[in-house]
């Protein structure tokens, strides 16, 4: 294997050292007569497969960041340990993808320099471990967080057109490897596989659908924002400060959770236990594990509902809070539903809430007490959005002006028309959203934090989204990207034609290189034959 022109011996040696873990010069390699065997090629293919595997996992890791706060809360409820696990995920993924990428680049450079691909056994073990770790991550995702597979489907509506362009460019790697095979049958087989993949990629846009491929004048209005427990990136969740911050973000609906204390006072709280969002372990250590409804209102008022926000920093935005906001956050207490309704009424903001826990033996009393507070508050009933399914008919009779929001899709034989639905964003397709919009059904999807996801749902025509990042989505004046179908068709044709020209040029160039090498190889064979005959004489 002669070094191609421009590839010096020092460069080849520097490439061999990290890949093969041996300090062997290129000249010694030639003297040894080392060649890349089929066994070495199989390890190269395995390396390429691991790289693609980790690349796909990196894509998934970026997608699930939208929902990772739910994972952090889940871990806290299980282990009582708060940590931003998204950082752990991203760091681990970056290490794995960087390692496989560096090895792949080294292998390609060695191939260009005409050096053997002798992958060291340490790298082989690490590559197997990388594949196992990523496989375990995918398995865990499928078992514990299966809805994220639906999130990936939604994400393809935002990234599909651009993934197609990247895949077209990535065919270079397959072509460069296919052109180095010397076996005739293997070369024909690889060429056929490559051509089939090329045709599939060229025609892939026929199967790519995205709601953001539309004309500018067809873009639906921007979805309204629903503050998930207020503005939890800017203030402690389910507090009056969080509600006021949501007002500053132009949020139209304050989404919260209501529980009823032991002495019959409805208050705002999401978790069944108070340990995550209060200092109950310091104030009532022997009762910290009790359900939130086991505390009376006097006890609840003694708890600090804001300091945890500054100490645990559930979102990176906590670090950028002003000194005044920090002081205000530290003073927060658990608000009653009455206080929240008064603040919503003054801000002309709607309030949507769930009543927890649904399986409580005294749940009907919870409904009646909560309705009593709503009716006494003086808030316009059309500003109250009722989520709980339990005893909904009683609510309709006692407070007919309340708007009812259903956590399910409409049924075929509805007794009463469904006007509002509240669902996870993974549970509704773009086609269903458009159909509901045509039927004048308001669709709210949760929880939407990332701009790419908000853009897809905006293009789909969703009415509103529940979000933790109201301060981010408020600033979006337009979807991240919007392409007319004619423009996308033009990009598709141009990219495919340009890549086809490059591939044809690569074929011609490699053909010329092979013709140049043949005379040199034939002269070497003649010289070796003469030397052999002289030695025999």
TrEMBL record:
Classification via SUPFAM superfamilies: PLC-like phosphodiesterases
Gene3D superfamilies hit by this protein: Phosphatidylinositol (PI) phosphodiesterase (3.20.20.190)
Membrane-spanning parts: 41-65, 85-113, 125-143, 155-174, 186-208, 489-509
Keywords from the named record: Glycoprotein, Hydrolase, Membrane, Transmembrane, Transmembrane helix
Pfam families, per the entry: GDPD (PF03009)
Cellular localization per UniProt: Membrane
GO cellular component entries: plasma membrane
A single MF term (Gene Ontology): glycerophosphodiester phosphodiesterase activity
UniProt topology in membrane: Multi-pass membrane protein
Domain GP-PDE: 223-477
Swiss-Prot/TrEMBL GO biological process terms: lipid metabolic process
Keyword Transmembrane helix: yes
UniProt family annotation: Belongs to the glycerophosphoryl diester phosphodiesterase family.
PANTHER family (alphabetical): GLYCEROPHOSPHOINOSITOL INOSITOLPHOSPHODIESTERASE GDPD2, GLYCEROPHOSPHORYL DIESTER PHOSPHODIESTERASE
Name this polypeptide is given: GDPD2 inositolphosphodiesterase
Gene designation per UniProt: Gdpd2
């Amino acid at each position: 294997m002669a070094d191609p022109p421009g590839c010096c011996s020092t460069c080849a040696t520097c490439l061999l050292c990290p890949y093969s873990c041996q300090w062997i010069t290129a000249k010694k390699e030639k003297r040894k007569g080392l060649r890349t065997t089929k066994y070495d090629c199989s390890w190269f293919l395995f390396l390429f497969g691991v790289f693609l595997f980790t690349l796909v996992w990196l894509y998934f890791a970026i997608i699930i960041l939208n929902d990772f706060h739910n994972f952090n809360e889940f871990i806290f409820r299980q282990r009582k340990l708060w940590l931003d696990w998204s950082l752990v995920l991203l760091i681990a993924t970056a290490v794995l993808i960087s390692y496989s990428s560096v090895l792949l680049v080294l292998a390609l450079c060695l191939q260009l320099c005409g050096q053997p691909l002798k992958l060291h056994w340490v790298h082989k073990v690490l590559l197997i471990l990388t594949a196992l770790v990523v496989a375990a991550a995918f398995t865990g995702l499928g078992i514990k967080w299966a809805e994220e597979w639906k999130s990936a489907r939604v994400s393809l509506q935002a990234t599909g057109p651009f993934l197609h362009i990247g895949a077209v460019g990535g065919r270079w790697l397959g072509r460069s490897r296919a052109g180095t095979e010397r076996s005739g049958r293997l070369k024909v087989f690889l060429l056929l596989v490559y051509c089939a993949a090329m045709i599939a990629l060229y025609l892939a846009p026929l199967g790519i659908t995205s709601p953001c491929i539309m004309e500018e004048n067809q873009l639906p209005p921007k979805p309204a924002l629903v503050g998930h427990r207020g503005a939890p990136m800017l203030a402690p969740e389910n507090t009056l400060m969080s509600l006021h911050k949501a007002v500053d973000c132009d949020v139209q609906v304050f989404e919260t959770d209501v529980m009823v204390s032991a002495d019959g006072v409805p208050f705002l709280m999401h978790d069944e236990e108070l340990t995550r969002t209060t200092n109950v372990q310091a104030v009532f250590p022997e009762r910290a594990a009790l359900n939130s409804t086991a505390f009376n209102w006097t006890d609840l008022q003694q708890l600090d509902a804001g300091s945890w926000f500054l100490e645990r920093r559930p979102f990176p935005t906590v670090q950028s809070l002003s000194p005044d906001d920090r002081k205000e956050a530290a003073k927060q207490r658990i608000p009653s539903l009455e206080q929240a309704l008064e603040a919503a009424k003054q801000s002309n903001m709607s309030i949507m809430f769930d009543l927890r826990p649904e399986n409580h033996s005294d749940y009907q009393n919870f409904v009646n007490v909560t309705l009593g507070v709503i009716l006494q508050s003086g808030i316009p009933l059309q500003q109250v959005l009722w989520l709980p399914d339990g005893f909904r008919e009683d609510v309709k009779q006692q407070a007919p002006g309340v708007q009812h929001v259903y956590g399910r899709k409409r049924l075929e034989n509805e007794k009463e028309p469904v006007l509002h639905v509240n669902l996870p964003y993974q549970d509704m397709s773009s086609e269903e959203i458009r159909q509901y919009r045509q039927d004048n059904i308001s669709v709210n999807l949760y929880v939407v934090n990332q701009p790419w996801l908000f853009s897809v749902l905006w293009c789909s025509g969703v009415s509103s989204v529940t979000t933790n990042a109201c301060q981010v989505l408020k600033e979006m004046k337009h979807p991240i990207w919007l392409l007319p179908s004619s423009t996308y068709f033009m990009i598709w044709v141009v990219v495919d034609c340009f890549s086809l020209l490059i591939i044809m040029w690569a074929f011609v160039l490699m053909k010329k290189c092979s013709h140049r090498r043949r005379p040199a190889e034939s002269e070497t064979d003649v010289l070796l034959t003469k030397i052999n005959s002289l030695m025999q004489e």
